[in-house]
Amino acid sequence: MTKVETGLVILVIILAVIAGVGYWQAATVAPVTTTVTSVQTKSTTITQTMTTTQTTTVSLAPGATATVTVTQPVTTTATVTATQTITQPVTTTATVTQTVTAAAKPPEPIKIGVLFPLTGAAAPMGEGHVKAIQVYADIVNNVWGGIPTLGGAKIELVIADTTTDPKVAASEAERLITKEKVVAILGCYRSADTLPASEVAERYGIPFVASAGTPIVTARGFKYVFRAHPPVVPTTNWAVDLVKNVFGYSTAAVLCENSAMGQSMYNMSLARAKALGLTIVHSELYSSSAPDLSPMLLKVKAAKPDAIIAGSYLTDAVLMVKQMREYDVNVKALVFIGGGVPSEKFLELAGKDGEYAFITALWNYDSKRPSSIEFLKAWQAKYGATSIPDQNAAEAYESAVVLVDAIMRARSTNPDAIRDALTKTQLISISGPIEFDARGENKYGYANTHIIQVQGGKWVTVLPEEAASAKPIVPMPPWSAR
Amino acid sequence: MQELLGQIVVQGLMVGGIYALAAAGLTLIAGVMKIINIAHGELMMLAMYTTYFLYTLFGLDPLLSVAVTLPLFFAIGCFLQRFCIERLIKGPPMSVIIFASGLIFFAQNLAATSWTQDFKVLRGYTTTTFELFGLRLTSTRLAILASAVIVTVLLYMLLSKTKVGRAIRATSQNIESAQLMGVNVKLTRVLSFGLGVALAGLAGSLLMTIYYLYPAVGTPFGVVALIVVFLGGAGSIFGALIGGLALGIVEAFTGFYLALELKDIAAYIAFIIILLVRPWGLFGVKE
Questions:
Q1: Which residue of A has its CA nearest to B130?
Q2: I need a labelling partner for A126 at 20 to 30 A (CA). Which of A88, A99, A444, B215 fits?
């Protein structure tokens, strides 16, 4: 054989293997299952599971009528009367053959697009979002038995990956809408990915309940984009308010990473500080992938602020506390603006160096609100008693709660009906009350912001009081005293 | 701010030490083999995972894990050269780079599927910081800087004083003449590639003490190592050290006096200008 022929043979073998695997996959798909219930006159119920076609034998009393109900996928009533005159109890055999047809399915499952980063740098956070949405989908499908106002229709999550890339986020949103025919989309954690993805949803008129921080998400005059959890405006303002009004400090340094999220936190915190009269002695933007933050931290050390207000993602936040210890940079309070730092991963990676840090968070698992306790219970039932959902999980859960609530009130899977129902949202979820203003932003964003602090190796809620389980500890001890 | 000047220089040197160490193995391969191993950063990433698992599973100190990663990655390097690169150099010149880019995606996805995308650090491993003449020094960063200097000196001695080193240099200068002089060219190439990869392993192990780990962590370090190699001059052992330290200091100064955001821009502008003025690098030999 020539080389070309060898190559062709190898190609054919590979294709054959792929085809074989595909055929095997198709062949192992479970057959449609139906349930037959035979009811005797004496009210004995016989329930059995059968495949598309099956014969079932039932014992009947004299003159009895057997009602055969095929509950899924269609309902048929067959009356079977014994043909012979029966004077005493005998056994009669009735054969019911029911061919399943595709046209008569139960209420179609409601497809919801779940678009988050599952690969790339933001994957650990995206995973938390998807897991939380799955918890809520389980509650809706298994505990409620589907959406009650839509004939028990189940929700089906169509999970897609933004790969931490805005271009992919947009194309995946388009695929979810045009190919998968989702009725709404939840996404995308990163502001940079959420902006293009929600733009696609707006263009197609598909409701998009966002889990992302930047205020731009709801500032574009879009009709189909909503956000339940507090965006970076209240969480950023809270960071400044906490330092100035709650702790009464007079100087601070503002350090933010330089992507869309960090830049909006940077501008907002500087503006808020100016409004409140908090003196900013140093402010700087940095790249969240920088392997070394010490040049910036040395400047902070020289400027001696009371507090650091930081708009960070995970790894840079960890690097920051570690290098603060290495270079003995001491402040009275270190406040991370909520949205970028996932609390539990931070705790895991920063270890003891993370102690006393604050996050102006969306939520924390120790929250005392009843709906929070419920969420924690459902999460731990699914992922194990030691698993702890972080605020990323909470924001995604809350988004799912809001969306399902709207679908339920819309009594329809029509995207416009869902959108109209979303505008009339009025519920109390795990972070607090939710009602949307004209932009699609929650009116109670500021009030729902949670202030959490690392105390004894755990995140505890210190504000608001309805949810708090501890008091804040400030000033934090210098590194030399730890 | 002037009192921090010394600290900035030290900081630049300590970061530069990482760059120099990452570049040491790469410059050896680039010099001897005249090929560019763009998967160098991914090999470092795999070494970081090795160190991470040795630490978390067996409690082995990351600095001691070098005793495992050095021979392990030497073996991996020898294997790659003997069974992959040796075959590829018979093909078109681009094929080694294409092979290495395949290796990058393979290694990153292998790491992602085997060990997830999660960020990992050595939990409970704390570095000690101490003050010396008013400068704050970190033990692990100093260890990296010292290793970079020691590796450079050892490599230099190996190349200039030993028989193997002479064979390596002869192969890098002229393959035909080296063969005529009785040098086993194939074996020499296997040894030098193995040594280069072993140094990637060393760099990865040491990097793990100060950095966090995820599947794509190698890419930025691989790029920086490439830049340092060409800044110093491909094949120049001291060039890699000086290039790495210089890059670290440029970054530290722009980070401090301008903005941390600008440090990459400044570093790469410096790199581009130096390359334009001396296309063969600071210490490279004009061919």
A1: A326
A2: A444
